[in-house]
Amino acid sequence: MIVHDFSNENSVLNQFVLEMRDVSIQKDSMRFRKNIERIGEILSYEMSKTLHYKTEVVKTPLGEKEMKVPETDIVVCSILRAALPLHTGVISFFDKAENAYISAFRHHPDGGDAFEVIVNYLASPSVEGKTLILTDPMLATGKTLENVLKAFKSHGMPKEIHILSIIGAKPGIAYIQDKFPENTHLWIAAVDEKLNSRGYILPGLGDAGDLAFGVKL
Ligand SMILES: O=P(O)(O)OC[C@H]1O[C@H](OP(=O)(O)OP(=O)(O)O)[C@H](O)[C@@H]1O
């Protein structure tokens, strides 16, 4: 897996991540969602540079011009719930992409820190031979992405996978390194050092799903 960590670069992306982390700003859920969406646009733009391109001839009112445009068949799949604004950002740049949605939630069987990830909904076209973009703002333990990849086994083998995320933890990134095919790219806005005992990213930003859409039972 190739990791593209943008926290090592100076760009306006860092401002959006800061606002998502900041306890005095993040409770404004509309702003929180908007920041996720615009980070989705920025990561999409960066990712677009690595896609496959073809030459097309465009006719203008005064002549013709050869231009290079992405030729890839793209399926964008978002992991509910927090990825929904990220999805909006991605498809605002890849407007011809097919769309998929998958659910995943943590189940704590004995109420303690240990959990398993339950995936019980996947709506997706075939991804056979296509470019699969998986979006999820948080990459904590990496178990969600591991289970999402398993769920996709019934939907064909993608040509390549791009994971778009906002904040990840080093242990989670290491965990998925050998679970995903080698030519998988991870595009991530920030990487934090560790997780707490419940598998939350430290310092992270809290619960992205709740901040974007409200507390769930
Ligand atoms: O890497 P992991 O340890 O698997 O954790 C990451 C997952 O946790 C969060 O979802 P959450 O379960 O809070 O669901 P929500 O988005 O519906 O609130 C996040 O959006 C990821 O999907």
Structural description of this entry:
Pfam families: UPRTase. This is Uracil phosphoribosyltransferase. Residues 12-214 form the Phosphoribosyltransferase domain. The chain is α/β, with parallel strands linked by helices and 217 residues long. The protein has a single domain (2-213), classed as Rossmann fold. It has helices at 13-21, 29-48, 84-91, 143-151, 170-177, 208-213, and strands at residues 2-5, 53-60, 63-70, 74-80, 98-107, 116-123, 131-135, 138-139, 160-169, 185-192, 194-195, 201-202. The radius of gyration is 18 Å and the shape is globular. The protein binds 1-O-pyrophosphono-5-O-phosphono-alpha-D-ribofuranose. 1-O-pyrophosphono-5-O-phosphono-alpha-D-ribofuranose (PRP) binds next to strand 4, strand 5, strand 8, helix 4 and helix 6.
Order of helices and strands: EHHEEEHEEEEHEHEEEH
Classify the helix fraction into a percent range.
25-40%
* CATH structural fold name: Rossmann fold
Distance between the termini: 35 Å
Mean pLDDT: 96
**CATH architectural grouping:** 3-Layer(aba) Sandwich
- Provide the CATH top-level class: Alpha Beta
Relative strand content: 25-35%
Number of domains: 1
User: With helices defined by DSSP (H or I, 4 residues minimum), what is the helix count?
Assistant: 6
Small molecules bound in the structure, each named once = 1-O-pyrophosphono-5-O-phosphono-alpha-D-ribofuranose
Domain Phosphoribosyltransferase: 12-214
GO molecular function: glycosyltransferase activity
Protein name: Uracil phosphoribosyltransferase
Keywords: Glycosyltransferase, Transferase
